Amino acid sequence: MNQAQIDCQQLRIKHILFKSKVRSVLYGGNYDGAFFSSAGPVSSWFSTIGFVRYQDVPELKKLGKLQQEIDGMVRHLVSLYQGGKIEEAHEGFRELENRSEEFLDVLSRMESKMAALI
To answer: Does the pTM of the predicted model rise above 0.85?
Structure first.
């Protein structure tokens, strides 16, 4: 496994953890503002690894855009939940799941592309 594949695996794990934390918050868990901030694991990966090592890879740009959309969705869902609109937040999580699948598909394409370069 080359470094790019390891980096992609790390992002995949961070993304899955991120989505799990969102689900946890929407089902009564504590909201961790630091985790969902620009210092959180997914954002940190983009700023320290993704945009440093793979800035010219088109899939990375798409991933960055998707993550920004996901971040916005999370803020909205948490706001709904904290405002007592729990069912709406749960319904909105389904759309986040769809966006997450898209994110993981793009990440898999990027990983395959990078693996083919070795």
So the answer is: yes
